[in-house]
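Q: Given only this backbone (323 positions), what sequence would you predict?
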């Protein structure tokens, strides 16, 4: 059962994975006990699935619990404990708790280099995750340098077509974009999207991330028609694959709304941004950085449509929540 749940997870069938993992965890607690290493593995797997399904509060709570138990039961330096630290750091990152994420990622990377070596695939994962957190913290040059190193090592250690190598390529393309290196971002974005479709399939969540990122690059290159077309496709697929209320689906909605704005489709932009803001407050909370960004985007659209009072009210709310 546990192996099947893991396979569901890696195939992107997250709802099936979650249901089966919850059942496995209940059984293991009853049969072998709450503190048995296999029970802790089930907890860790379920926390990871919660994370990927956008249930970040559940993921954080369960991730903190399993990390504490693993430190007590199998020790602080055990590879499974380090994996739990890395997963929890990723959850902190997605919750917008960037300082916590950065500190934990740096600790995991240091320990993995000591325990399993610099070129171990799990060490490369830690490097990639830390680079992503650097990106979210605005440390783009550090992110770029680390991501380029990760890709070089990943190609040598696990191969060019390994899913983790593809994820690193997706992240580097996003960093190139953020640094304004749009030509490099578009070239790498197209390459990795093609590889993702071939290796992990067209509907895999990582493939959809690659599609969304490429669409954003198209928009910033002024290729608005290509951007809008690809973003509509991504949004439709994300609703089908990961659900309408998943944070990544909300990101796709927000990005499409921005493209509508750039295309001068202000009414469509306003309608979609209002929907995104309402859902973001419910799903990730009103203080989350992405929610604040959605508020700013909607205020900008209100202003462009001459709804100045609404824009001012929303901008005041952003200032209050940010302080």
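A: Predicted residues:
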């Amino acid at each position: 059962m546990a192996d099947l749940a893991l396979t569901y997870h890696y195939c992107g069938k997250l709802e099936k994975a979650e249901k089966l993992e919850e059942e496995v965890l209940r059984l293991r607690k009853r049969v072998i006990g709450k503190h048995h290493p296999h029970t802790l593995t089930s907890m860790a797997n379920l926390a990871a699935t919660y994370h990927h399904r956008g249930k970040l509060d559940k993921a954080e709570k369960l991730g903190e619990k399993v990390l504490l138990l693993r430190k007590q039961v199998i020790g602080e330096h055990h590879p499974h404990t380090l994996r739990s630290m890395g997963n929890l750091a990723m959850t902190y990152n997605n919750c917008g708790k960037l300082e916590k994420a950065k500190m934990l990622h740096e600790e995991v990377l240091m320990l993995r280099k000591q325990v399993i070596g610099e070129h171990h695939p799990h060490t490369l994962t830690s490097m990639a995750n830390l680079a992503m957190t650097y990106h979210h913290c605005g440390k783009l040059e550090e992110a770029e340098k680390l991501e380029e190193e990760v890709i070089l090592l990943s190609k040598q250690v696990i191969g060019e077509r390994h899913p983790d190598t593809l994820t690193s390529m997706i992240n580097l393309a996003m960093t190139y974009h953020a640094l304004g290196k749009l030509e490099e971002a578009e070239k790498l974005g197209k390459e990795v999207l093609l590889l993702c479709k071939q290796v992990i399939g067209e509907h895999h969540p990582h493939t959809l991330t690659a599609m969304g990122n490429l669409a954003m690059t198209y928009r910033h290159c002024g290729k608005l028609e290509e951007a809008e077309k690809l973003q509509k496709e991504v949004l439709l697929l994300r609703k089908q694959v990961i659900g309408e209320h998943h944070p990544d689906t909300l990101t796709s909605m927000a990005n499409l709304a921005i493209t509508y704005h750039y295309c001068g489709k202000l009414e469509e932009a306003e309608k979609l941004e209002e929907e995104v803001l309402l859902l973001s407050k419910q799903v990730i909370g009103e203080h989350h950085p992405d929610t604040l960004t959605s508020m700013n985007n909607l205020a900008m659209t209100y202003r462009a449509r001459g709804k100045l009072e609404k824009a001012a009210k929303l901008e005041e709310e952003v200032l209050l929540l940010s302080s």
